[in-house]
Design goal:
2 copies of one chain form a homodimer.
Chain A lengths: L10 E17 L1 H4 L9 E2 L10 H18 L10 E6 L5 H10 L3 E3 L6 H14 L5 E8 L1 H8 L15 E2 L2 E8 L6 E6 L14 H20 L8 E4 L3 H15 L7 E3 H5 L10 E2 L1 H17 L5 E9 L3 H5 L6 E9 L1
Parallel strand pairs in A: 1-2, 3-4, 3-5, 6-11, 9-10, 9-12
Antiparallel strand pairs in A: 1-7, 1-8, 5-7, 8-13, 12-13
């Protein structure tokens, strides 16, 4: 891995790799009952998490995830210099209200489901630039808050087509430090918006797959790496259909990542959990990263990980107005 | 001004001050008819800007503002390495669709009306860190898209209380380069979320004023500067009521900026334009900065500017659920 920064390219290589010294994940009951239940820090008993509304529960989930990550290093929120995070809700309210309680200087991001990668990238670049020594990057989503905001009133019980995905109720937070022990962020690729004209809001995976492939292709090109460099290349939440499209595009573009390519949306749920094409939402890739993936890195089972969170950048309004669904994907390299 | 970075503080000082080599602003008819009409690059004839919907018009306004700023340096979107921007709409659709057309690697931000400062800060830190040589920071808002999203259907013609503000139809974009001629960003202060329990969504200025004062106070303390250091200290969009509260808090806290303190929301409109307490929206501070203020810096009338964009971080849903309005403010130092 080269130690220089490549100016002008979409990929930045860090001179001073940032250390993931602690992380945490909190997930909902469905997510906790899936194949990775034992890898999350905390499984909520219900979707309210002791609050009066789902939205307040989501905000609490994010706040507690951040505090839990800090707590693993015996730190308080006041010990963090910067909080970089986002969620799916209008005006980022889950994150804003979490930031209010945490009272850490705060930069809010919106990258739809790509937010976990975006927050890691912004944090890493600011730290590598020498501005901060300790930041928290985080993202969250909540099935019931997203469902009623983006789709239908939850009480309506609208049946979903097989291409649709299940927004994960989950939060992930990473404590990044300039000095410490843990996996390191060594490079990152900032994505461009890619839109192939897909308009079906019940099929986000197809809309995001081309952006994921564009970023992965750019990453390998910028870094001049063989496609078998990473132990695992994992996309954010393409789901089964999006992942299948990505795999076809990999073959077409000659960039099939080996030996292991997977997708957090495919990984999060078992087939019998009713998640249709798979998980989605900022929390999906956030909890898979801050749960099983980083645990496997700590155990040495994964040494080199390319984590690509993917986002569908439409709103209900843009879809009502006939617009297609733009996608974006940001890639983060995490190495032991 | 010291040349070192202050780690741990909320304020960062740039080793390699970033140059604002070009900027542009596009505003709506009302904004163009105000006191600064001659200082904007382009005044739209109507609020649709040739598009079918206000939202598409807003996205075009942002896109054209970015292209116009680049064009002043004979550059194309492809010449920019990074686009950092945001707006007020759910899921940042105006910005996302502008980013799709511009096809520049993109980081979306949500800081409500504080976005212009947030985008300048993130861009500056990434450039000072050595990752990029040419980025675009931008923000926009549109009166009619914001009105129907945050408040009431525009057709309803709901009468507003005197404390309410008029969301500006405006976009501002700054081209930042690591080498060039122009005013420079020399320091920045990242704000914390401050919430004094104000719940009146028709009075954003009061909700944001404490955050603005907190950031300004922190800035002067971190930088160890006298309160008469800047030629102008200008907040984002507190409006008349918020600005009056800020001035009271300045006196209480002993940090009254001299000789000139003003607010973009107070500046944008004339009293007879029906904007009540003043302008608001990301576009308000963005167009005042990228219109009259930077023009005055170029002319030498302002040499040292402290620009503090302020954001109210609620959503209609958080207000319906009884929450108060959290505020945030980020400060940027621009010097000749």
């Amino acid at each position: 891995m080269p130690g220089t920064k490549k100016k002008g390219a979409q990929t930045v290589v860090f001179d001073n790799p940032l250390v993931l010294t602690a992380w945490a994940s909190i997930v909902g009951p469905l997510e906790g009952g899936g194949p990775w239940g034992q890898d999350f820090d905390w499984i909520m008993e219900d979707y309210l998490f002791g609050e009066q509304t789902w939205e307040k529960g989501e905000s609490k989930m994010l706040r507690e995830t951040v505090k839990h990550a800090l707590n693993k290093r015996n730190l308080e929120p006041a010990d963090a210099e910067l909080f970089v995070a986002g969620d799916l809700l209008n005006q980022l309210v889950s994150t804003n209200f979490a930031a209010r309680e945490l009272s850490i200087p705060f930069l809010g991001l919106y990258g739809a489901c790509s937010t976990m990668a975006e927050s890691l990238i912004v944090s890493s670049m600011l730290m590598d630039g020498g501005f901060f020594d300790r930041t928290v990057a985080a993202a969250c989503s909540h099935h019931y808050t997203a469902e009623r905001q983006f789709r239908f009133p939850t009480e309506q019980g609208v049946q979903k087509p097989p291409s649709s995905q299940w927004t994960a109720t989950a939060a992930g937070a990473v404590l990044l430090e300039s000095v410490g022990v843990g996996p390191r962020i060594t490079a990152a690729t900032i994505g461009r918006v890619v839109d192939m004209g897909q308009k079906d809001i019940a099929d986000m995976g197809s809309a995001m797959a081309p952006a994921a492939v564009d970023t992965i292709k750019t990453h390998f090109k910028d870094m001049n790496l063989p496609t078998d460099y990473y132990d695992l290349v994992v996309t954010g939440d393409l789901g089964k259909i999006g992942m299948a499209i990505a795999q076809q595009l990999f073959i077409k573009d000659g960039v099939s990542p080996r030996p292991n390519y997977s997708d957090c949306g495919v990984l999060l749920f078992d087939d019998n959990q009713g998640a249709l094409s798979g998980g989605s939402g900022c929390g999906c890739s956030a909890c898979i990263l801050c749960g099983p993936l980083l645990k496997k890195m700590l155990a040495g089972d994964i040494k080199k990980l390319l984590f690509i969170a993917t986002g569908a950048l439409m709103s209900p309004l843009s879809s009502f107005q006939g617009e297609s669904i733009p996608g974006i994907a940001h890639a983060v390299v995490i190495e032991n």
